[in-house]
Write a structure and sequence with these properties.
Helix content: 55-70%
Number of helices: 8
Number of domains: 2
Radius of gyration: 21 Å
Low-confidence stretches: none
Distance between the termini: 48 Å
Strand order of the largest sheet: 2-1-3-4
Oligomer: single chain
Largest sheet: 4 strands, mixed
Order of helices and strands: HHHHHHEHEEEH
Amino acid sequence: MASVVGIYARAFADVVMKTSSPLDPAGALQELRSIEALFKESDQLRRVMENPAIPGDRKRAVLDAITQRLGTSRSVRNFIAVLTDHRRLPLFSEILKQLEQELNARQGFAEAQVNTARPLSDPEKQLLEAEITKMTGKKVRARYGEDASLLGGAVVQVGSTIYDGSVKGQLERIREQLVEI
């Protein structure tokens, strides 16, 4: 299923990234997240949209009512209609996650998860993000979390790469060196 998820995500990323598209990537993602939230909140709505016994034109009528109420763009409405027609709505959350990664890659962004022992001030965040940008060569979108067990410093995860600059990590490396002796 991962390939199906990627196909839909790449196809919609192509639509969003076209220079003639009136839709900006951040706006498209926000609209899709709003629709995803509706599907998560309403089991009845999700079941109706995923039910193969309900004709496509009735599902599209429901979709049109939803997108009109939300003020959703035509491109996003059409994307949801394609997912509905091809019975891919059960994969919607996965497709949305893959789409976000695809758009970030095309725009030169890297998603970073930063865990620190204490909350960081805005200047500290800016400095850390500048360092991550130097290391990755990409603009950074960082999410921050706290982990008191780190004792100090930070652990940064960009994709599958982890940069451990925490006191806990340094102590672990020293312990491993001592064991080798």
